[in-house]
Amino acid sequence: xxxxGKKITxxxxxxxxxxxxxxxxxxxxxxxxxxxxxxxxVKKAIEELQYRPNLHARGLKTNxxxxxxxxxxxxxxxxxxxxxKRFFDKGYFVSHCYSRDGDDFIQMLIEGRFDGVFMxxxxxxxxxxxxxxxxxxxxxxxKTRDYSFLEPNIVTVAPDIYGSIxxxxxxxxxxxxxxxxxxxxxxxxxxxxKGYRERAYKEALETNGLSYDxxxxxxxxxxxxxxxxxxxxxxxxxxxxxxxxxxxxxxxYLAGRILQYLTKLGMKVPEEMAIVGMDxxxxxxxxxxxxxxxxxxxxxxSARLVDTMLKLINEEQVEDVFINVSLLVREST
Length: 333
Prior knowledge:
The chain has helices at 10-17, 21-29, 36-49, 55-62, 80-89, 103-111, 126-134, 161-174, 190-193, 197-207, 224-237, 252-264, 283-286, 298-313, and strands at 67-72, 93-98, 116-119, 139-141, 154-159, 180-183, 246-249, 274-278, 292-295, 321-323, 326-328. By secondary structure, the chain is α/β, with parallel strands linked by helices.
């Protein structure tokens, strides 16, 4: 029974569960193995007493804020909810931050006392990432480009994006497409990332006997309007055998927006233009026609992300992880 007005403490939980206060901490923080019987007793006491730990006080004792920053170019990554829940179950609160250019943003991350950063943006240089890492904040990187030297506490956990582009372009070529547009994700900095997605795209073309044409790569992804403008020019400037017949989009959201844009132009998908997205989000099956998309296990990704981040926070050595991908073919191709 909860006593109104009384602040519930860890000691209260320990007394009700019949265990030591230290063991309550082990269960809540999952720092040491505890028997199933005692774990259940502690969880039952926490629920009955409606105990909520003081994260600020815990942070003062452990020198941890129990907060993780997710830095995203696009906040529409619905599948990140799985990773966020896993962090929550480990006692961590996740803050979603929209990426911004400049060193001021880097300083904000450093001064924000985050225990770790999950970087889903390619906007930042190796120097900027190393500045965060050198401040003692480990980074798990959703790698979409090549970098020069990175600090040891910067580790990659990501789907095999390079391989996914190779697979997607090769599939489209097998379907008879010879002029394929590459549209990287919105706000993807091609100047910094030049050579990563583009290299995979080029490799797939040349492996299948086709020549690389830089004109088919959307170099400016600063806005949706810029991407639409480039696609319009490519579609209507070309004629006959020179007109593109397929688009590889950087993610499902972009693919969906392009699909809507082509429909407004009076083009039929996939008859006149095939489209492939990436990440296989809920949008892929909600769109009409349903979207062909690159898929990877969100459960495996989330588990590896959380495991890697916690090991980095505990100053353990870990290696880069690349999740296998597959192509889910639907109506848009």
